[in-house]
Structures are given as structure tokens and as C-alpha cells.
Design goal:
The protein is an alpha+beta fold. It has two domains: 49 residues, no CATH class; 59 residues, Roll (2,3-Dihydroxybiphenyl 1,2-Dioxygenase, domain 1), CATH 3.10.180. The chain has two helices and nine strands, in the order βαββββαββββ. Strands 1, 2, 3, 4, 5, 6, 7, 8 and 9 form a nine-stranded mixed β-sheet that branches. The model has no long low-confidence stretch (mean pLDDT 89).
Length: 124
Amino acid sequence: MTYTPNHFACWFEIPVTDLEASKSFYAEVFDMSLTIVDGGPNPLVMFPVSDEAGGVSGHLYPGTPSENGPTIHLVVPDNLEAARTRVKAAGGKVESENIELPSGHFFYARDLDGNSIGLFEFNS
């Protein structure tokens, strides 16, 4: 195996039950201004980074918090279909179809311990 990306983690997301209250919480904790953005599959609050081209960021979104923590998105070495096959073969659970974003697409899965992971493929 020779897969060695520059950045293995590419995104994180934190599901919250009250987006407005959570926006206020994180804004206060990190002493920053946060806003709700409405442009994807659901409204979200983006965490800003100083280097948008190389920084790893994430968002808050309205959802059911997982008993096993937030979701981290990891870049696959090839494509989502191959990754989907490997998740199943390794004993994990695929939990969604592909979800399209402007920068690429991903699907949700669970590892052997039930941790939520997003497997991400950037657009070429």
C-alpha cells in the first residue's frame, strides 16, 4: 500500500440540535463571528480558516448528534465506489448514497466501533 496524501483529514462536521444556539456557543468559545449559510443540502455554520486553499475546516449542521461523536471526512485514495466496496469487505457499514458538493462527493459510513466517517473524493 502506497497511499500517502498531503492531508488525510479533509473536513469535519458537528451535528447539533439547535443551530442558532450552537452558533452562538462556538462563536463565544472561539471569540469569532459565525454566520448561518444556506446553500447546500441544509443550512450550516462554517468554521473559518486563514488558508482556505490548504486549511482543514468544518461546519455545524442541524442533525442528530451521534452517540459516538462527530463525523470526520477522510480522503479516499482512488474513488468512492472502490472505497464503498472496501468498507463493506473490512466489516464497516455504508450509511448513505454519494452526496454531491461543489468540491467533490462523499458518503457516510461507520467503522467497526460505530464511529461516523465520511469518505471523500475531490473533483478532478
